[in-house]
Known about the structure:
By secondary structure, the chain is mainly β. The protein is 9% helix and 37% strand. It contains seven helices and 42 strands. A hairpin with a 5-residue loop joins strand 20 (361-363) and strand 21. The longest helix is centred in the first third of the chain and has 15 residues, at 10-24. The radius of gyration is 27 Å and the shape is globular. The termini are far apart. Sulfanyl-(tricuprio-$l^{4}-sulfanyl)copper binds at residues 163-164, 212, 273, 359-360, 409-410, 459-460, 523-524.
Amino acid sequence: MSKNETPRDPNEVLEEYEETLDSVLAEVESPDETTEDDDISLGLPGLSLGRRDFMKAGVAAGAMGSVAGCSALTGGGDGSAGSQSTPSGSGASHTVEPGEHDEYYGFWSGGHSGELRVIGIPSMRELTRIPVFNTDCASGYGFTDDTRELLEESGGYSWGDNHHPNLSETDGDYDGEYLYVNDKANGRIARVNLTYFETDAITDVPNMQAIHGCCVLSPDTKYVLGNGEFRVPLPNDGTDAKNPDNYTSLFVAVDPESMETQWQVKVDGNLDIVDTGKEGRWAISSAYNSEEATDIQGMTKDDRDNVKAFDIPAIEQAVENGNYEEVNGIPVVDGTQESSLNQGDRPIVKYIPTPKSPHCVEVGPNGDYAFVAGKLSPTVTMIDLNALADSSDPEDVVAGRPRVGLGPLHTTFDGNGHAYTSLFIDSQAVKWDIEAAVEAEEGSEDPIIEKQDVHYNPGHIQALEAMTTDPDGEWLVSLNKLSKDRFLPVGPIMPDNDQLIHIGQGEEEMELVADHPAYPEPHDCVFAHKDKIDAKKVYDKDDYEETYITEEDSGVERTGDNSVHVKMTTKRSEFGLPDFTVQEGDEVKLSTTNIEGVQDIIHGVAIPEHDINYAVAPQDTREVTFTADDPGVYWIYCTYFCSALHLEMRSRMIVEPAEG
Length: 660
Ligand code: K7E
Ligand code: CUA
């Protein structure tokens, strides 16, 4: 909007949004029908909205940033369906006493913050953060030589948008080795080493722009798989830029060890989220743009989109037979509907028609069904993975389609026959019976057991170890996009709200137990029992490449006319060198080893006015290379409060003026 244009009435904007949403939800019967029961007063004189409109208002409020009267939400409500208080309930406690440990690790994607967060369950305490696509001042990730190179060699971007964290699996269970996560923004996949909780590899996947869906191929992590969401020309080099018909979406397989791109499959429409069956054969991807349009009206035009079922061994066979085109060094297999590879009795990609613009795919614990949440359709489509191989009519593979509520996005499982689906528009978690949904007619609400209000507009929903073959039940987290009135106001950019819900073993009612504000913006999370992760507390120097430095090694070595290598140790409470001298213009390589063997004694190496600060954990060695441009004295100091003499833990870098 230009400066002198009159700002629009927020209510007008809201109305316009509602009209758009109504038009895309046209297939929902009587969408505006509300009952007495559902009425929620907004607390504004003369204004009363139905439950559905109330939640929609929430969505629009988030998009617009400000809506008059939004703050009145706290005063409103008649205590019915939208009650915002925490229920007294059955007394399920998520308290972890001081000094006690959580039962589970939760790994949260950090969205466009680029980082991951590690949160203990059930306490919801934040344990640490793992920088992945961002730089991080506290750890020095992106500042030390190895981590800076990692970011530079994977594209040199300063941010990423991680959505889907996945733990490596052996025999369908978490093996605690690695976590893989996508970067939606720049088409990358990163790996985090769970021995040290550090990012150790990032692959910039060729030919793809937005990698949205990301998962590992169960049961043994043969590949890390990624979905291309944004259609782009192939190759995206300026040709066909104005010809969207020729854009394409790719599905990619990355090797989990080498992190190299193995092959890609080109499809019709686009690709959104992906999960795999439990037997290593099927990867199921949702999609929302079978129209292949470039604007929202076009993308939501058709009543059907296609879920794609990738037959992994069939694709591998095609690659082996040389049935591909090589683009930027990667074999790209043609998986479009017209492709000859899809005409025989073993097509490489099956296209399964699904109601309008579905969102997520999650495969249930026993691997029988893939659950495709409708997003714009109020249903979840269950795809029978056992029927996929032999069925020629794609409709035959639909095992059930319960009507669960408005805006279903994601589904999770308790391992006791129940599915839990997040309802973005209704702001609820709905619990339903999987087998009852198979028995029931399409569109039936009978399988629904219970609905729990959440606050507000949930995206992912995740129960303990729900992505393994043997989920643990007990706790579920609803990752809500908006918190609105749930926390003290902190300015217009409000936290998200991750809510902890007790589900027990599925026999009890769901109970909301805790709100947890989250910095923007988590999408998904994954939980592993603490016994499955073996995090080291001290580095093993055999695990890294840099040369370990002893106290005797501390010193300055001139390595060229304009370069020096400074080596020094760190320990309580001194650096290996009280001072060192370099010449103006020298390229300085500074190597530091923390020679302590005691856990939790970290030293920081900060150099003022040189943009350098990094952590060195016990027995770790880190290197940083920089240019000493300005003559002068620079106090190097320790940034981790390591001892009573921490403030005295200093060294001096003296930069002598160049001669002449
Ligand atoms: Cu639904 Cu990127 Cu998994 Cu966000 S995605 S919510
Ligand atoms: Cu070392 Cu503070």
